[in-house]
Design brief:
The complex is a heterotrimer of chains A (157), B (387) and C (351). Chain A has one domain. Chain A is 9% helix and 34% strand. Chain A has one helix and twelve strands. Chain B folds into two domains: 5-120 and 210-227, Peroxisomal Thiolase, Chain A, domain 1; 133-207 and 235-383, 3-Layer(aba) Sandwich (Peroxisomal Thiolase, Chain A, domain 1). Chain B has helices at 24-37, 55-58, 63-66, 87-100, 120-125, 139-155, 159-172, 188-193, 221-227, 257-270, 275-278, 289-298, 307-312, 329-332, 336-352; strands at 5-12, 48-52, 78-81, 106-114, 196-198, 201-202, 211-220, 232-240, 281-283, 365-372, 376-383. In chain C, helix 3 packs across helix 12 (311-326), helix 6 (152-165) crosses helix 10 and helix 6 runs parallel beside helix 11 (284-293). Classes of the chains: A mainly beta (157), B alpha/beta (387), C alpha/beta (351). Chains in contact: A-B, A-C, B-C. The interface between B and C is large, with 56 and 66 residues.
């Protein structure tokens, strides 16, 4: 048995230059510059976001681009109370914050994003939401170009 | 063409939040030694090894190569998988195929994680797709809690019913020397009073982060009986995935497509028609209380939407008709690279009648599942009889 | 009891120093769709996939998640073997031999240009006593080359032969290898396989499916793998684990001897010589002759432009193509780990 175990502190730094590829390049350019959302549709009509070369539901290549949203519906949701350090920026995200699955109108899949609400009892599955954008000067061509999604309570009668 | 395969020995470390007294090689060696010692075996009795570990969590690349001496593996075939939460069970499935095909005869599966040595948040970030998913993440808990809200909406399960799962798990853990969270007096009220991590999931609803290792030895048909008095024979070893991105499956927990598919295949292989009747014990991979309730449904233990009523009726308790996670489950110990292998190991121990204080009487058939990635599933069925 | 798996489809992307036009998902789809065409099947016909990738190279935990759908594994089984693709092929063969899988895709992929090789390799060193020295695999290779002491002229011929025989890279001008910068003495930059972005996909199936498909097929007669001790504990002037893996493969295939056609994968030129010697091909000079004449590494091995994780599967593809041409037997080789700590062999026979 060790009386005083030693501990070694070390940093492992890994840098990557990812190629975004054809689908992401088109999607994020359109998002950043035109504030529009492009999904891929398979020959059987499944509309997929993120856009991708193959529809996993049908095992066939996707066929064409389809615009979806910007209106969307909230799917699963939560309000997070645990502090989170954004690994991309190193910033601490203020807690609590809303987070959930966003399904753009016309799309069959959802993506995760922040939701501008901290009371979970106000949120519900099926709530209409819309994106709130960062200023053009702040947009970089990532999902973070959207600041968060705003619940449209006024429309949710 | 296909030989039968059995688990013949299991070893685990005592899982805790932080092992300061051992490094990874020593921790892994502990589990391996314990496994081999149960049958008076040595490294010479192992033909090949399959390792499971999330390398980016501890920041050790090619970890299987670093561990060769610790595992007595020099000169032997060494395989490594890193599939996320399912990896431990995937090593068992790999061992199954490698032995059933005749490629190897005695395979030692080793799953491990020294979570305390990594950065938990960076680790989870590395799971997200770098181009599509990393820009906006909320850790494992945010993702999980969002899925849970869909399940709650579909099933109507209550926070109390979920809390019952936590109470069952941590009380069962008291009978398992390896479990991390032993809480003999835990009550539903305690769980409901614990801090909310991400609505509706509370701290005591969620699995811990652990340092631990598990080793399971598998053997070919003609060797198994000489290695274990009562080998645990594999009757099904199935893997199923889902679509590729985190938001693709809208009802990921409520209708876990990979689990439903794996169950369909696995039950058919093993002739399971009524799981509550046909299984004597189940060790399932429940990352949180709500997940366990959903898994009761997806595994066909009860009707869809009936997970809460299933635990209210006491069926999955130690003395119920189908004890679920007598070991304390993932809720009581979660060294990710080991966790799914611990499920297989615990299921095997039940079949071999070697689960000690948490042994369920008269086990003939046991179920083990693994969960991870984007709601992927591994599913194994073990029995006292050869297939 | 071996050899019930057949290769019925082969495809690989053209290796490139940098692919900006595709991400990993799209790169692998490029190879998958070509392999499906080659086999005459659809993605829906695939029963499951075995993939090969290393998380540190990919910058992603569970790196196989990126290729799940394009490999036809949605709702089906996909398993990642974190090693050279040849090992993934051996696992896939074992699965087919059990009769539980009938048609599997085997996909190896890496976009080496995306990562920092020094950082990736550094992470494979012992965190307690080695990392502080900031080493990487090239440093170790320099140590090994120093110990082996093969003349630079011989090593240069190895690289030149690989480039001449490469399906993708251009031949090197005379003297280019020795003129390239010293990386870790005595090694020059061109002695190491260049970093590449590539994917290789094989379609593997059982006998009945192979017969039904009616495509040119190659039988996987057997295989073997062995892992040596960690680099610092090994005799770097030997590669005993290569011998162990080969013996295991030959035994599994029921072959008395290794065939003449061996597609060897060596990341560094001096390794090709060392491996050739361990294979019993004679003196250093005899090995280099064999490389130049194409008896060993006929398409140039890893030095011909194959990413580390892909090399063994690409070697298997090259062997299979050769067997389509002139029948017989061939041996494909791959390695995993710092200075090839693990070796894998695939025994192939024309069907």
């Amino acid at each position: 048995m060790i009386d005083e175990p030693l501990r070694l502190k070390q940093q492992v730094t890994l840098e990557y230059r990812f190629a975004a590829g054809e689908y992401a390049s088109r999607f994020f350019r359109t998002l950043k510059e035109e504030q529009r959302f492009l999904a891929r549709r398979c020959p059987n009509g499944h509309v997929l976001l993120p856009p991708r070369p193959v529809c996993g539901l049908c095992n066939v290549a996707t066929a064409d681009w389809v615009e979806v949203g910007p209106r969307a519906t909230l799917g699963g949701y939560t309000v997070v109370y645990v502090p989170f350090t954004d690994p991309m920026t190193g910033e601490g995200r203020p807690v609590p914050y809303g987070f959930g699955l966003i399904r753009f109108d016309g799309c069959d899949t959802s993506v995760y994003h922040l939701v501008d609400e901290t009371d979970p009892h106000r949120l519900r599955i099926g709530l209409p939401v819309e994106p709130v954008w960062r200023d053009a000067s702040e947009r970089k061509g990532t999902f973070a170009d959207i600041r968060h999604f705003r619940p449209l309570y006024e429309e949710d009668a | 063409m296909r030989g039968a395969v059995a688990a013949v020995a299991v070893g685990q470390t005592d899982h805790v939040s932080r092992r300061l007294d051992v490094g990874i090689p020593e921790m892994v060696r502990e589990a391996v030694d314990r496994c081999l010692e149960t049958r008076d075996l040595t490294f010479a009795d192992v033909d090949a090894l399959v390792l499971g570990n999330m390398e980016m969590f501890e920041g050790v690349n090619l970890v299987e190569h670093w561990l060769v001496d610790a595992l007595g593996a020099a000169g032997k075939p060494v395989w490594k998988l890193n599939n996320g939460g399912t990896v431990g069970a995937s090593t068992a499935i790999a061992a199954y195929y490698l032995i059933a095909s005749g490629f190897h005869r005695r395979v030692l599966c080793v799953g491990f994680e020294k979570q305390s040595e990594g950065s938990a948040q960076s680790s989870i970030t590395t799971v997200g797709d770098p181009i599509w998913e990393r820009a906006v993440m909320a850790g494992a808990i945010g993702n999980f809690a969002a899925m849970t809200s869909v399940y709650v909406n579909e099933s109507g399960v209550t926070a109390e019913q979920a809390a019952r799962v936590a109470v069952k798990a941590r009380r069962n853990a008291c009978l398992n020397p390896h479990a991390q969270l032993k809480m003999p007096d835990l009550t539903v009220e305690d769980v409901l009073a614990s801090d909310m991590l991400a609505y509706p999931v509370r701290k005591l609803d969620f699995c811990p982060s652990s340092d631990g290792a598990c080793a399971v030895l598998f053997a070919a048909e003609d060797l198994a009986a000489s290695l274990a008095p009562k080998p645990a024979w594999i009757h099904a070893a199935v893997t199923a995935h889902d679509q590729q991105y985190m938001g693709d499956s809208p009802k990921r927990l409520a209708e876990m497509r990979s689990l439903i598919e794996a169950r369909r295949k696995g039950y058919a292989f093993a002739g399971i028609e009524d799981p509550v009747r046909d299984f004597d014990v189940a060790e399932i991979y429940e990352p949180a209380t709500y997940a366990e309730l959903a898994m009761y449904e997806c595994l066909g233990f009860c009707e869809q939407g009936g997970g809460g009523r299933f635990i209210d009726a006491g069926v999955p308790e130690l003395d119920g008709a189908l004890p679920v996670n007598p070991s304390g489950g993932v809720l009581s110990a979660n060294p990710v690279g080991a966790t799914a292998l611990i499920r297989v190991g615990e299921a095997a121990m039940q079949v071999m009648n070697e689960a000690g204080e948490h042994q369920i009487p008269n086990v003939r058939t046991a179920l083990a599942t693994g969960y991870g990635g984007n709601a992927w599933t591994d599913l194994l069925i073990l029995r006292t009889e050869k297939p | 009891m071996s050899g019930a798996a057949y290769i019925v489809g082969i495809a690989e992307t053209t290796p490139a120093a940098r692919r900006e036009d595709v991400n990993t998902t799209e790169l692998v789809w490029e190879a998958v769709s070509a392999a499906l065409d080659d086999a005459g099947i659809e993605l829906a016909d695939v029963g499951g996939a075995i993939t090969a990738s290393q998380d540190f190279w990919e910058g992603r935990t569970i790196s196989s998640m990126a290729v799940n759908e394009v490999c036809g594994a949605t709702f089906k089984s996909e398993s990642k073997i974190a090693a050279d693709g040849a090992l993934a092929l051996l696992y896939a063969s074992a699965r087919i031999e059990t009769g539980l899988d009938r048609l599997l895709l085997v996909a190896a992929h890496c976009m080496e240009s995306q990562a920092d090789p020094h950082a990736v390799e550094l992470a494979a060193f012992d965190p307690y006593v080695q990392r502080e020295l900031d080493p990487d695999e090239t440093v170790l290779a320099g140590l090994q080359a120093q110990l082996l002491d093969y003349p630079v002229a011989l090593r240069a011929r190895v690289v030149e032969a690989a480039r001449r025989r490469s399906p993708w890279l251009d031949p090197l001008p005379e003297g280019a290898v020795a003129a390239s910068p010293l990386t870790a003495s005595p090694l020059h930059a061109l002695e190491r396989a260049p970093l590449m972005d590539a994917a290789c996909v094989l379609v593997l199936c059982d006998a009945e499916t192979a017969a039904r498909l009616g495509r040119p097929a190659v039988r996987v007669a057997g295989g073997g793998t062995a892992t040596g001790r960690y680099w610092v504990d090994r005799d770097l002037t030997r590669a005993g684990e290569l011998r162990d893996a080969l013996d295991g493969a030959l035994h599994h295939a029921g072959w008395d001897d290794a065939p003449e056609h061996i597609e060897l994968s060596a990341t560094f030129a001096h390794q090709a010589i060392l491996f050739g010697r361990e294979l019993g091909l004679g003196s250093d000079a005899a090995v280099v002759d064999a490389l130049e004449q194409g008896r060993l590494a006929p398409t140039g091995g890893a030095l011909a432009g194959r990413p580390g994780v892909v090399a063994g599967l690409s070697a298997t593809a090259a062997c299979a193509r050769a067997l389509h041409e002139h029948g017989g037997r061939a041996l494909a080789h791959g390695t995993t780990g710092l200075l090839a700590q693990s070796h894998h062999f695939v025994c192939l026979e024309s069907a």
